[in-house]
Amino acid sequence: VRKPFHQVESAFQRKYQGTGLGLSISEALIKMHGGRIELQSELGVGTRVSVIFPAAAHMLNEPRKLRLVSA
Question: How many domains does the chain have?
Fold first, then answer.
């Protein structure tokens, strides 16, 4: 699923849009940042794509100050 592909049909005749590069490029960028991509798909239901990035090292060691915002 994550490998680049091309559609055989011409742009005017094909049923589905796209170049076939989206997930391949996305996965490469995610990996460059130390993250990962997870795909869960169920026929007739849909697909869930999760992108997980590691927390920045400086964020893990510093206490976080939270600010309460009310609407």
Answer: 1
Euclidean distance between the first and final Cα of the chain, in Å?
43
Nearest to 32 by CA among 51, 4, 60: 51
Q: HEC states along 24-48? A: HHHHHHHHHCCCEEEEEEECCCEEE
Q: What is the pLDDT of residues 13-71, one digit of tens each?
A: 656 666 667 888 888 899 888 899 998 999 999 989 899 998 776 666 666 676 777 65
Q: Please check whether residue 24 is in contact with residue 18, taking contact to mean a CB–CB distance below 8 angstroms.
A: no
C-alpha radius of gyration, the chain, whole number: 19
Quickly count: other Cβ atoms within 10 Å of residue 42's Cβ. Answer: 8
